[in-house]
UniProtKB/TrEMBL annotation:
GO terms for molecular function: calcium ion binding. Signal peptide: none annotated. PROSITE patterns: EF_HAND_1, EF_HAND_2. Residues 134-169 form the EF-hand domain. Gene3D superfamilies: EF-hand (1.10.238.10). InterPro entries: EF-hand-dom_pair (IPR011992), EF_Hand_1_Ca_BS (IPR018247), EF_hand_dom (IPR002048). SMART domains: EFh. It comes from the Bacteria. It comes from Streptomyces tsukubensis (strain DSM 42081 / NBRC 108919 / NRRL 18488 / 9993). This is EF-hand domain-containing protein.
């Protein structure tokens, strides 16, 4: 079990979420992630489909992150983010409520065709929203780890448990460590 592994994952996650690389997490980052996901899925700029995805990301910011800031604050530093995520890890009930809600919100974005499961292309488009340079090869590698029953799709539980594990597990072997498309096992 590795605390260092968990810290590396949380910091890497912050870098992915800080989409405009300003060094702080803001609502603007979530708008940008939504727009990138929409673009990767082939939705036109200004389309309703794009607006739905952007709304889902903005909801993550407003419902999950913003309430943990002091009133009036509109940006979260890396230190605040790390501290906040670690606190959730050590409080399983709060973690389940928060990261579980994050997982549900991300599933609604990733499952672009709404059939209840995430296929490899949907997963690639979803991760492209977080990391524009990521390749299909990288996301396919991660996909195979997350697809625990090997049926070629990520079920609701495979997708959401990957997110919970990524943000909370200290186990180097946890499949969810692959959630961002990167190998954290070494
Ligand atoms: Ca789908
Ligand atoms: Ca599966």
């Amino acid at each position: 079990m590795s605390q260092d592994l968990l810290l590396r994952k949380i910091q890497h996650g912050f870098d992915r979420f800080d989409a405009d690389r300003s060094g702080e997490l803001t609502e603007a980052d979530h708008v940008l992630m939504g727009e990138r996901s929409a673009r990767a899925l082939g939705h036109a700029q200004g389309s309703d489909a794009e607006a739905r995805i952007v709304d889902a990301y903005v909801a993550v910011w407003r419902r999950l992150h913003l309430p943990r800031l002091q009133s009036g604050a509109d940006a979260m530093t890396r230190e605040q983010f790390v501290e906040s995520m670690l606190r959730l890890t050590d409080d399983p009930a709060a973690g389940e409520a928060t990261v579980g809600a994050l997982a549900e919100a991300f599933l609604s974005v990733a499952d672009a065709d709404g059939d209840g499961v995430v296929d490899p292309r949907e997963y690639f488009c979803f991760l492209s929203g977080h990391f524009p340079g990521i390749t299909r090869e990288e996301t396919d590698l991660a996909f195979r780890r997350l697809d625990r029953d090997g049926d070629g799709t990520l079920s609701h539980s495979e997708f959401t448990s990957a997110i919970v594990e990524f943000w909370s597990s200290r186990d180097p072997q946890a499949p969810g460590n692959w959630w961002t498309g990167r190998d954290f096992s070494e």
